[in-house]
Amino acid sequence: MKFIKKLYAARQRRAVPEPFSAMLEPLESIFIIGDIHGCADLLKQILRKRPDGTRLIFVGDLIDRGHQSAEVLSIVKKLCDQGAICLMGNHEKMMLDFLERPTEKGSRWLRHGGLQTLQSYNVRGINERSSDQELLAARDVLRRVLPDGMERWIRDLPLQWSSGNVHVVHAAADPKAPMGQQLAKVLLWGSRQIMACPRLDCQWVVHGHTIVEKANIINGCVAIDTGAYATNLLTGAYISFGKVTFIETGD
Questions:
Q1: What are phi and psi of 83, to 5 degrees?
Q2: Residue 217 pairs with which residues in a beta bridge?
Q3: Distance CA 251, CA 242 (A)
Q4: Residue whose C-alpha is closest to residue 171's, from 113, 227, 87, 233
Q5: Distances from the Cα of 83 to the Cαs of 58, 67, 148, 164, in angstroms?
Q6: Which CATH architecture has domain 20-248?
Q7: What are the beta bridge partners of residue 218?
């Protein structure tokens, strides 16, 4: 019996994963900007701090909560036309759901910041308790006032982007699944339980979505959502070979 207990204890020790220690190996220098949430003024500030020669990446959640979503979408789309990359966030997904099924999905989006996005396009007279008819009317107005190509651009936003062993997602990536086999639900909405486990494949993940007081690195995961709409602090991660540098508005 004593031998069996020792054997079981040894197996438990071997089951504990090694601390994450993989070297950062992007194929190019990149600057990744966290959740903007309609804060165009902060976006302009952090773009002025962008290191020269870097690829520009946005983790999504450009819209909602803040009051300048229309301007943020316009700025980021123009940058993407010039080579930047923007991922889809769960708030962009909620906006698309509203455009497709306003009577079913409208209240949820409005409750989580969609009201501010509508107001940024001067679509008013609606709230989360509006009738189905009012939600349909608001959807139709939003579709009319969105700039040409904007809805299609949002629909085509990717869920992840990679360079070397650095992967950018909106919310999270399951450490037990290869990056090419991630579920859209996890990439968009995340999971605290999932993010608590270190990856074992030497891949780094940069994400937003979950607000942190300060950008941080835990188990190979780089968290950069510092709640810009509530804190006035927008954060970016400058990643080069072997190094992460956090850059904030106000620095």
A1: 120, -10
A2: 222
A3: 23
A4: 87
A5: 12, 26, 19, 18
A6: 4-Layer Sandwich (3.60)
A7: 221
Taking the domains of the chain in order of start, what are their residue ranges? 20-248
Residue 18's pLDDT band, with cuts at 50, 70 and 90, is: low
pTM of the model: 0.91
Tens-place pLDDT, residues 38-48: 999 999 999 99
Comparing C-alpha atoms, which of 84, 37, 29 is closest to residue 60?
37
Task: Supply the DSSP symbol for 114.
Answer: I
62's CB contacts (< 8 A; 6+ apart) are: 36, 37, 38, 69, 72, 73, 76, 86, 89, 91, 92
Residue 108: partners with Cβ closer than 8 Å, 6 or more residues away: 94, 97
Q: Which residues neighbour 25 within 8 Å (Cβ) at sequence distance 6 or greater?
A: 164, 165, 166, 241, 242
> Rounded to whole angstroms, what are the CA distances from 63 to 78, 199, 202, 211?
16, 30, 32, 15
Predicted confidence at residue 7, as pLDDT, reads 36
Share of the chain above pLDDT 70, in %: 90
pLDDT digit string, tens, across residues 157-167: 999 999 999 99
CA atoms of 168 and 159, how far apart (whole Å): 9
User: H-helix or E-strand containing 160?
Assistant: strand 160-163
